[in-house]
Structures are given as C-alpha cells and as structure tokens.
Write a structure and sequence with these properties.
By secondary structure, the protein is mostly helical. It has a domain of 97 residues. It is 89% helix and 0% strand. α3 packs antiparallel against α5 and α3 packs parallel to α7. The chain is rod-shaped, with a radius of gyration of 28 Å. The model has no long low-confidence stretch (mean pLDDT 82).
C-alpha cells in the first residue's frame, strides 16, 4: 500500500510537470525531450512514444505526404490513434500492478481470521475434554487466541479493502485523463502533419 501510494504521488507530480511543459512550449522536440525525463507520467510516455512514431513515419512517408497530402495525414492519424490506445493500455496495466494482491488480501484475510477462531475454539473444547470441566482457566487461553487471530485478520483486511478502493478510483481517473489526452494529442499531431503538407 505504501509503495503504491508513493508511486501514484510521484506519477501525479510528474504528470502535472509534463502538462505544464506541453502547454507552455510549442516545440514538439523539446516537449519530447522533457517527456523522456518523466518516466512515471503516463501522459509523458504517451507523448514520447507517439512523437517517436510520428518522426519515424514522417521520414518514411515524406514523399507520400508531399504527393497524397490529406489522405496520408488521415492514415497517419489513424495509426497514431491506434498507438495511443496501445500506450494507454500499457500504462494502465502498470498503474494496476499490485491491486489484485490487495483485493485478494481484503477478501481472504477475514477467512484466515475465521479459521484461527475455529482452531482456538477447537482447542478450548479439547481442553474441556481433557480436564473434564469448563472453567475460565480451561477455555480462556483458546478463546483469547481465537479473538486475537480474528482481530488480526480484520486488521489486515480493512486497510487492504480501503486502499484497494482508493487506488481503483485513482486508476479510473488516470484512465479518463488518458482518454482525453490521447484525443488531444492526436489532434495536435494531426495539425502538425497538416502544416507539413500545406503549400
């Protein structure tokens, strides 16, 4: 939970830095260079990947851009949209790492505590059978151990469940932000391509 909290905090900080650079600078090469130094930001990684692809495709299809113009721009834009969705999926997968462990912990820990409770009660009944009487001295140790194990299971499950819900909501927000950013980025690169083919 601590590691995921720190990761998301740094991710948010780097994303805010990158968005600020993107809005302040009109030089795509400068923005791409800045994005390379912000590896935790999904938006920076998306920009850097799409810029590299645009640069490569631009070199490969320079003659096509000159001859075909708008059709080539449309093809490249479709390719960039597809690439944006791929990068988004990879970034979300990275953000979701560890969440399945938290979900499993939140679901399983109470049952582990329940198992400890049953085991403690069984020990108490075994002690009653051996000593032939149900005094507090006989059943107390088993019951107290059972309650401690139950409390331990809940102490693990409750924070894991709360953290899981918080992290899932944060990842959903990142997904929504990436959806909007992918469209914004595709339009930005489209306009860049159109400027290149305009006479």
């Amino acid at each position: 939970m601590w590691r995921k909290t720190v990761l998301l905090r740094h991710l948010g900080k780097q994303t805010r830095t990158f968005i600020s650079i993107l809005h302040r600078s009109g030089d795509l090469a400068y923005v791409a260079a800045a994005a390379a130094h912000l590896p935790l930001s999904p938006q920076a990684n998306m920009f850097h990947t799409m810029y590299d692809q645009l640069h490569t495709l631009g070199q490969q299809h320079r003659m096509m851009l000159d001859r075909v113009g708008g059709e080539a721009v449309a093809l490249l834009s479709d390719h960039l949209r597809h690439l944006a969705h791929q990068v988004q999926a990879e970034e979300l997968k990275r953000c979701e790492q560890g969440l399945s462990f938290l979900a499993t912990t939140a679901a399983a820990a109470p049952f582990v505590g329940l198992l400890g409770t049953v085991w403690g009660i069984m020990q108490s009944f075994h002690a009653i059978g051996q000593r032939g009487g149900a005094t507090l001295a006989v059943v107390g140790p088993g019951i107290s151990e059972a309650l401690v194990v139950t409390a331990a299971g809940l102490a693990v499950a409750i924070p894991a469940l709360v953290a899981y819900n918080v992290f899932v909501n944060r990842v959903r927000q990142i997904e929504t932000d990436l959806d909007h950013f992918a469209e914004e980025l595709t339009l930005l690169f489209e306009s860049h391509l159109i400027q290149r083919v305009e006479p």
